[in-house]
Amino acid sequence: MMLGLLGWLSRRSLRLLHALGALLGWAGYALSPTYRRRLRENAALAGLTPAERRASVAEAGKLVSELPRLWLRPRDRAIDDPVRWEGAELLERLLAQGKGLVLLTPHMGSFEVSAQAYAERFGAHQPITVLYRPARQAWLRELEETARARPALATAPATLAGVRQMLRALKKGETVGLLPDQVPPEGMGVWVPFFGKPAYTMTLAARLVQQTGAAVAVLWTERVAKGAGYVVRAMALPEPLPDGGDEAASALAINRSMEAVIRMAPTQYLWGYHRYKQPRSAA
To answer: What are the CB-based long-range contacts (under 8 Å, 24+) for 113-116?
Structure first.
């Protein structure tokens, strides 16, 4: 039944899905005191206004509602909705170096579009491998694995095997993508500030760059109002990684860079994400 509903939703217009998603976002906000409290606290750390916080509730719902349209279209068909690029020339220059490329994408806007749009534009020459955390539900985990993998777009689970897969891709001069504000397992991160509050932050992103000599950039996708499509933005890391391989200093630089990116469109960040939680035990 669930897959049937998702299939029906995948054939609706993006404008309708985003309207439904806004309602879904507010339903989740109203029904979950824990989510509501976390969203308010996290947004307050970044200094969001009440209006920005309210807008972020609807945007979080839109992220969920647009997934069927992005996941369930035929594998060989391009994204159905308009996609405009800003900063593509930066990626062209970095890819031309042939050293591999690490793309950092915060929990912001439509991060599912970011990887798909990259694969469509650049993947024929330099494919991308994206790190993801498998869902707990078996049916959703299976859907993720099949729907996210597309031509020139591979997925790697957030495990040791997945890290090795990403290292192999970088050593071949390919691209990898990950969400640096995702809470890593215990022992795979350090505690550094994020919007002024200590957050357990992954060290993997900086280690991939340091171990392979790959270039690094930010890639994020802004959701356009009224279902008018997406703007994919590529940009240099606002705060360069420090030399010397200090894990805490590198993680802090990445957090500061993500803060700068998030402030560009704060209503599209997932403030309800449990960013400051204790890490789970490593497998």
So the answer is: 113/70, 113/79, 113/83, 113/221, 113/230, 113/232, 114/177, 114/219, 114/220, 114/221, 114/232, 115/148, 115/153, 115/177, 116/70, 116/79, 116/150, 116/153
**Whether the predicted model's global pTM rises above the 0.85 cut:** yes
What span, in angstroms and rounded, lies between the C-alpha atoms of 140 and 116? 19
CB 95 within 8 A of CB 55: no
Query: What are the residues facing 177 on neighbouring strands?
Result: 103, 130
User: Where is 191: in which H helix or E strand?
Assistant: strand 189-194
Taking only the tens place, the pLDDT of each residue in 41-54 is 999 999 999 999 99
What are the boundaries of each domain within the chain? Answer: 81-268
Angle at 57 between CA 55 and CA 63, to 5 degrees: 105
